[in-house]
Amino acid sequence: MLSITLFKECKVIQERIEVIFSTLDEDGRPNFAPMGVMWDGKELIVRPFRNTDTYRNLMATGCGVANVTDNVLLFTQSALSEPIFPHFDARQVRSIVLKDASYWREVVVTKVSGGDMRAEFCCRVVGQGWRRDFLGFNRAKNAVVEAAILTTRLHLHDDQVNVEAAYRRYQEIVDEIGGDQEREAMRYLRDYVRRWSVARAH
Ligand SMILES: Cc1cc2nc3c(=O)[nH]c(=O)nc-3n(C[C@H](O)[C@H](O)[C@H](O)COP(=O)(O)O)c2cc1C
Hints:
Blueprint: E1 16-24, E2 30-39, E3 43-46, H1 53-61, E4 63-68, H2 72-80, E5 87-89, E6 96-98, E7 103-114, E8 119-130, H3 139-152, H4 160-177, H5 180-201
Antiparallel strand pairs: 1-2, 1-4, 2-3, 3-8, 4-7, 5-6, 7-8
The structure holds flavin mononucleotide (FMN).
């Protein structure tokens, strides 16, 4: 179990990027989840909701890895299910690195704070690595990430019409300039939404 001091707040860091955050649970089972993290090179802040495995694993082990990748299919899959992606052991912390990361940061938790719903883990970067160039984002990749976020928050949206309009717009962008990866990601999201809508109707 994590043993660290509880402070009121983390340092303020403006820069936010979307990563696939990887952790191990107490029994060593891998977990991958998209998280928006703030970092400034030496420090990193991750703010998982308290009902996520990422929160539980950070509390249990006190470390994780922020993986930067342009593979948006991985964002959609790990936002909505529990895939175990190909990975290898991190060097400096007891955690794992996503094989399809462009580069990554290995972090240890130094402070925990936050509110009822969401925790805030301030972390120190203790290791890093690089595997391949970051290809970059285009509008289709952005659209997939936005669609993935919307899908994780379906339960918060009363206005079905607006949600459907947003999906249609994301789909148009992907149809226009997306590649196989973005199209597969949108199919994955739309299948999920269909199942979710059916389940909600019953
Ligand atoms: C781009 C993106 C960023 C996200 N950022 C966060 C975040 O900062 N905190 C959080 O709790 N959930 C975030 N989510 C939602 C989680 O990824 C989602 O709830 C996931 O199922 C949590 O997985 P876990 O239970 O395996 O940790 C994000 C989702 C996406 C697509």
